[in-house]
Every structure is written in structure tokens, then in C-alpha cells.
Write a structure and sequence with these properties.
Strand content: 15-25%
Shape: globular
Largest sheet: 4 strands, antiparallel
CATH topology: Cyclic Phosphodiesterase, Chain: A
CATH architecture: Alpha-Beta Complex
Distance between the termini: 31 Å
Radius of gyration: 17 Å
């Protein structure tokens, strides 16, 4: 399969949490398959439309095109080496939280290990990242970035890295104000068995296909 962009994510390993997320969003990033949504008192087709193509994941290094002269095979080897320098750690317990107009899972406590992991992957793999186009920069800057975020965008091609990094697993697209409470209540109950804490022992190299859907390429063990 030919991929147009690549990313480093944390994805839950195969198991009940990953299965719930795949069905909730309608896309299994591990297997590259569309999934049937579970019954719910609202339209999952509509509220998960935007995040569906990404599958259940938390971004560590945001999607990027390969720079000229680099190959997927070389990226894989570099990502595997970068992961091998990092130590496994425990992700704090998660919680359903509103971020702007969407709902996501976020840690209930800070994690220096998580921040170090994301920063290391962003920096180590930056040589493989093609610079963003002017249109891509303009799209990012249309979201009213802070001066610090704009500087990070210019340096790393993405504004929410390093000190601006915020770990989250997106669960919905934008919700109407009256949808937030019932969807959040439903998720609080449905996700109660899956909130962790979770052991982060690997990261996932993923690729975006021609239809914009992300697929797991390889899980890369943390061996530091």
C-alpha cells in the first residue's frame, strides 16, 4: 500500500480498549478495516465523522509528508531506533474531557515521561519531514495561534509540540452545545473499564492511504 503521509501515534494494543475505540469511531487502525458502530442514543456516524479516518490514537508526531530523498524503509529504521532509546512508562489514568467543541480522553495527571517521549520523536524524525506548504501554514495560522505556537509551527511544522504538546485521544468531531453532556455521560460509562492506567511499551508508526485513512505500519518497542 502506498502512503501519502506518516505519523507516530500511541495506539492501545489489541484488546477491549482498542476494540471499543475501533467500533466507536468506525475504523480499526490496527487492521485497516471499517467497523460497525455499536448501538447508541445518538448518531455515531455523524459525531465521529471527522476523527474516523485516524482511528483511536494519540498523536506523538503529527502527520507529515516524507522529505525528498527519504524512503518509508529509512523512516521505519529511524523510528525504530528512536523508540529504542526511550523507556516504557505508565500513562496516568485517562478521563473524558471537552476540548473546544469535541470530546477526548486526556491524562488525569502530568507525565514528564510522556512529554519526553513526544519531544524525542518529534526531534529525532524531523529530518524525514517535508516542510509544510504555504497553504498548510495558512490553514494552521487561521486557528489564531499564540506567538509560541507559531514559532513551533515554523520550526517543527506543527504548533502543538514540545511545551505546547497536549496528549489526547479524540473521540468526537465538533458537537453542538446540547450534544456535549449526553455524549460525555455515555462515554464516561462505556469507557469506565478502559481508563487505565496504561503501560506505554511501544509507539506506532502509521501511514495515511489515498482516501485519508490511517493504518498501522508497525509497533515500535520502547527499549531504553
Amino acid at each position: 500500500m502506498t502512503f501519502h503521509r506518516y505519523a507516530l501515534y500511541w495506539t492501545p494494543p489489541p484488546g477491549p480498549f482498542a476494540a471499543f475505540g475501533s467500533a466507536w469511531l468506525g475504523w480499526n487502525i490496527l487492521t485497516g478495516e471499517a467497523m460497525a458502530h455499536p448501538p447508541a442514543p445518538f448518531s455515531l456516524v455523524e459525531i465521529t465523522k471527522r476523527p474516523r479516518k485516524y482511528g483511536l490514537h494519540a498523536t506523538l508526531k503529527a502527520p507529515f509528508r516524507l522529505a525528498e530523498g527519504h524512503s518509508e524503509a529509512a523512516l521505519f529504521e529511524a523510528a525504530k531506533a528512536a523508540a529504542a532509546h526511550l523507556a516504557p512508562f505508565d500513562l496516568p489514568r485517562l478521563q473524558v474531557r471537552r476540548i473546544g467543541r469535541f470530546l477526548a480522553l486526556t491524562p488525569t495527571a502530568p507525565s514528564p515521561s510522556l512529554m519526553r517521549t513526544a519531544a524525542h520523536l518529534v526531534e529525532a524524525l524531523d529530518p524525514f519531514r517535508a516542510p509544510p506548504t504555504e497553504a498548510e501554514l495558512a490553514k494552521r495560522r487561521a486557528k489564531r495561534l499564540s506567538p509560541a505556537q507559531d514559532a513551533l509551527l515554523a520550526r517543527w511544522g506543527y504548533p502543538y509540540v514540545m511545551e505546547e504538546f497536549r496528549f489526547h485521544l479524540t473521540l468526537t468531531g465538533p458537537l453542538a452545545s446540547e450534544e456535549v453532556a449526553p455524549v460525555a455521560d455515555y462515554l464516561d460509562t462505556a469507557l469506565a473499564p478502559h481508563l487505565g492506567p496504561h503501560r506505554v511499551s511501544d509507539v506506532t508508526l502509521c501511514g495515511e492511504d489515498g482516501e485519508g485513512r490511517f493504518h498501522e505500519i508497525s509497533r515500535l518497542p520502547l527499549r531504553g
